[in-house]
């Protein structure tokens, strides 16, 4: 027998051995494999049931409930939009009853605006802003900034500065950077100044000067504050 024939025979034997061992493994572990496969089927079935039989219909129901409040917000009737009346659910009810939906994330934001601007209840506003959620980048930046503002209003300056800095970084990297970036960097810098962290404040102010429109109000204020800090050091 040639060397080539021996190699072929050995290859055939190896394949047969592998096949035999594979069959033996499945035979010995048939019950365990069946349980594992059954578990996978249950998990996948549960996932699709949740998505299509619960989550999607709930999203539709929440979206329908939010139609009236959304219209009221557009005409600046925020109090009625949040509180609702006997004829429709307001944002506060939607936020409580449809947790996890897009409508609830939006409802929490407007509840935050109401408690911040009208009720002047900053702790409640903070809790709502922390649960607010939007799909788009610009509104997400706004929410982060609102959380920072509410920490400032509740006298938690360290958290306020941290959240405002986070909002500034989000704004700097967003499509709406020129609209939100200068103000948020300036707010964060002022918060760090209150804390006595002048190095952080200087870095934020310098970023405004280096990256944003020299004609903006924030630019002028950043220049003045940075000059003040450098004169002190």
What does this structure look like?
The chain has 233 residues and is mainly alpha-helical. It has a domain at 164-233. Helices cover 82% and strands 0% of the residues. It contains 12 helices and no strands. It has helices at 3-28, 30-65, 67-74, 78-83, 91-97, 102-117, 122-131, 137-153, 157-172, 177-195, 198-211, 217-232. The protein is flat and about 80 Å long.
Brief account:
The protein is mainly α and 233 residues long. The chain contains twelve helices and no strands.
Topology:
Elements: H1 3-28, H2 30-65, H3 67-74, H4 78-83, H5 91-97, H6 102-117, H7 122-131, H8 137-153, H9 157-172, H10 177-195, H11 198-211, H12 217-232
List keywords for this structure.
233 residues; flat; mainly alpha
Order of helices and strands: HHHHHHHHHHHH
Mean pLDDT: 85
Calculate Rg over CA atoms: 30 Å
The number of distinct β-strands equals 0
Determine the strand fraction and express it as a percent band. Answer: under 5%
Largest β sheet strand count, sense and barrel closure: none
Low-confidence sequence ranges: 6-13, 47-54
Helix segment tally: 12
- Share of residues in helices: over 70%
Shape: flat
Report the structural category.
mainly alpha
User: What is the CA–CA distance across the termini?
Assistant: 92 Å
């Amino acid at each position: 027998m040639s060397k080539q024939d021996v190699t072929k025979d050995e290859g055939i034997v190896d394949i047969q051995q592998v096949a035999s061992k594979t069959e033996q493994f499945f035979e010995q572990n048939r019950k365990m494999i069946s349980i594992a496969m059954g578990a996978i089927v249950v998990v996948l079935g549960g996932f699709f049931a949740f998505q299509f039989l619960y989550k999607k219909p709930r999203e539709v129901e929440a979206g329908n409930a939010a139609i009236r409040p959304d219209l009221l917000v557009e005409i600046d009737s925020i109090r009625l939009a949040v509180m609702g009346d006997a004829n429709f659910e307001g944002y506060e009810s939607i936020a409580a009853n449809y947790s996890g939906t897009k409508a609830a994330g939006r409802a929490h934001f407007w509840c935050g605006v109401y408690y911040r601007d009208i009720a002047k209840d900053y702790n409640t506003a903070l809790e709502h802003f922390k649960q607010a959620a939007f799909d788009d980048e610009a509104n997400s930046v706004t929410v982060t900034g609102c959380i920072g503002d509410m920490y400032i209003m509740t006298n938690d300056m360290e958290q306020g500065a941290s959240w405002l800095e986070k909002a500034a970084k989000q704004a700097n990297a967003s499509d709406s950077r020129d609209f939100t970036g200068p103000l948020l960097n300036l707010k964060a810098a002022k918060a760090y100044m209150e804390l006595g962290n002048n190095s952080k404040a200087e870095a934020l102010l310098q970023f405004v000067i280096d990256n944003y429109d020299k004609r903006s109000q924030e630019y002028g204020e950043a220049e003045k504050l940075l000059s003040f800090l450098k004169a002190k050091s």
